[in-house]
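Q: Convert this sequence to structure tokens.
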Amino acid sequence: MYPQDYQPRVSLLRPLLIALAALGVLVLSAPWPPSPVMSRWAGAPVIVASAPDAAATTAAPAPPAIVGMAVPLVLGLDRYNQASQLVDAAANQLVSYYRRTLPSGGTLVYFVITLDPRVQIEVINADGATPGSDASGDTIWADRQPHLATVAEMAGAPYALRDGQAPLAAMAFGFHGAQRTSDEGSVVINGTVRRVNAGRAAVCITREYTASIGLLDAAQLQGCAQANGAGPVILWRGKIAHPDVAAATDTLLPFNPLGEDFALIDWRRMIYAGTYPKTAVGVGTHEDGTTFLVFATSYGTTGVELAGQLKAMGCSNALGGDDDTSTQAVWRGAQVQPGTVRKVPDALAVYIRP
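A:
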């Protein structure tokens, strides 16, 4: 479903993929997950997918050519990483930092985090403040004072220390607006539900070292050790959200496939379709069954291409996060991409337990 004058770009990786196919390289995928959990919010049925939720690609046809989609097939995380630049790693590569130049000319900076007892992911925020809601449901800090900081400031502050350790990495994720001082989405910190917004998708990390993405109500959030809401979903069960698609196909979904509650949905669509900086979190499963997360920041590329890259890594679901000058990530305290960034309400931080 494309305009008649639609002209797809030819990926720079396509000759390589064709050559690999000629050599009989097989694309592997994890098995389809158990039945999804059903929940209801505001009278509307929603689906929450749990990880391991990998796309079934054994006999799936190759998707159509899409502008900005560089790698249309699931390559798997190891093969994908081999073509990226490994910048640094920690804890026997349970957490790794990669960079990649995309065929569009954009840049992808991403952290791969294997969920493991040696790794702690936690929502941190400005000044260690407590997010909440006022009587109307709008977002506030519990003390009703503004608390915003850059991710580098958050990660470098004393309140961000855990067992005397600063975060290894952190990435901005949740949204806030001019009248909303804390994260608009759901927030769970160390098992305590701080804010519930069942109309926005969230990434949920459990105490059992699994993760899920979906629309989670208050009861479901009780099962999260950490959760952070953002949205919309950009990759759902291996299908990529595309702003020019009106109905689901074998490989594509319309933009905002879960019908998330965004007052400024047209703005979100414009950002996704454009080459603004973006953040996203992807969920995938290693061959041994363990869950991994990808914290991704992209620069100079569309949301479709970003979702395609996460799919190529083996992520089955991915949630878009904050964007433009809010896009920022740090590794060992240093910003991974130069540029001026704005102050934000919170970040997803990664710690290595001593």
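Residues 1-71 have pLDDT under 50 and may be disordered.
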